[in-house]
Specification:
By secondary structure, this protein is mainly beta. It has one domain (2-176). The chain has one helix spanning 2-19; strands at residues 43-51, 57-64, 75-81, 89-95, 101-105, 108-114, 119-126, 143-152, 170-172. The chain has a five-stranded antiparallel beta sheet with strand order 5-6-7-8-9, with no helix packed on it. A four-stranded antiparallel beta sheet has the order 1-2-3-4, with helices on one face. Strand 6 and strand 7 (119-126) form a beta hairpin. It is flat, with a radius of gyration of 16 Å. The model is unreliable at 1-20, 157-167 and 177-182 (pLDDT under 50).
Amino acid sequence: MTRHLVLPALWLLVGTIAASAGEPPATVPGVVIDHVPASSGLYVGSPSIAVLPSGGYVASHDFFGPKSNEFKSARTAVFGSADRGKTWKKLSEVQGAFWSSLFVHRGALYLLGPDRHHGNILIRRSTDGGVTWTTPKDRATGILRDNGEYHCCPSSNMPAGYGGRSSGATRRSPGGSTTGPA
């Protein structure tokens, strides 16, 4: 039940932060995990959250906007909380991750999503709660689709798919210029 309550709070929090042109207002509900002033030209987006087997929380977001590198090699920030979300610390930044989702499978933490805006689909694994991540180099190490033009919506707590496999929705966009229902 806790996992389902934290995600809506994270979405609300990120939406509130994105609307802020400067510092977050003093009345932001919940706990601010990260803030980037809009004047920087970098915007916080694509929030995701997972609960580790240890009970710790891990949250992530990517950066988009006019000063981002989202069309070449996007980046995602990963944060951890050992006190059920009361305080957070930055654990890592993952280069080449956009619209990505965090999920736990068989005790390990995973980050699944494109490497850039309409990019290749990659999966990374962390065995230390999000501090370090594997580097996808080929199909054996995490490049799931390398023909580009993929997009997806980050979602947390990826559901176990048919046959016990983790699953998420991605869609290939012809020419990278169209979007719509997946």
